Amino acid sequence: MAKKKMSLNLAPFYEDPLYQKTQQPLFEFGTGLLEGKPNDYYKPIGESGSSEFEKMLALTTRDTQKAVGENLVRRGISRGGLGASIVAKTAADTSTKLRWEDYSRAIAGKQFLMSSGLNTLSDVRGGSLAIGSQKNQYNLSKAELDLSVQKANAAAKQAQNDMWAKLAASAVGIIATGGLGALGLGAAGAAGAAGGMGAATSGALAGSAASSPMASLSSMSEFL
Asked: FRET pair for 84, CA 20 to 30 Å: which of 56, 72, 93, 145?
């Protein structure tokens, strides 16, 4: 009876469907940051002199001019001449300070965006290496198991072939032994029959010799 071959039925490698869905957007986001092309939401982080800043600067300049003018009035200094010069200088100093702060903030923001882009792409690359390593390990283990199953099936088939070979050899030996026994029995029967015939002949010759020598010779010659 043939034995059923062993088979390997492993579940396929499972990959979370969210993996690819998150990898691609993160890759595009990190690449955009490194290329200096963040999306509109994060773009102001690295911008200087934006429209929002200009609006804020205009309001600040207006408030500064108003505050300086009122201070000059309290001191009895007119708004023209020296007063106007003081107001303009104060507003200019305020604008310069705010613009420098805005520029410094934008430089720090660009550095932050670059670091974020590097970290994002590093995480994407790390995730890709991890999933690739897991797939390679799965395939390697599966290949090893497949090879073990093939070896086991080959060993089982060889053992079955050896068993049938031994059974065939035993059957041939039994048949051969039975044939020789039959041949031996036939030879023994033939020898017994020949012996009986010889004894009968000897007895007949002896009886004839006892009754008459001439009859014995005659009988012998007839027998021969």
From this structure: 56
CA dist 68 and 125 (Å) reads 57
State how far the Cα of 118 lies from the Cα of 125, in Å rounded to an integer.
10
Distances (CA, A) of 204 to 132, 191, 195, 214: 109, 20, 14, 14
Which among 121, 104, 113, 127 has a CA at the least distance from the CA of 48?
Answer: 104
> Which of 149, 147, 167, 146 lies closest to 157, judged by CA?
149
Query: What pLDDT, in 10s, does the model give residues 69-127?
Result: 888 778 777 667 777 888 888 889 999 999 999 999 999 999 999 999 999 999 999 99
CA atoms within 13 A on the CB side of 142: 12
- Cα dihedral sign, 124-125-128-129: negative
* Whole-Å CA distances, 58 to 16, 49, 55, 94, 189: 53, 12, 5, 11, 141
Q: How far is CA 39 from CA 35, 42, 46, 52, in A?
A: 11, 6, 11, 17
pTM for the structure as a whole: 0.57
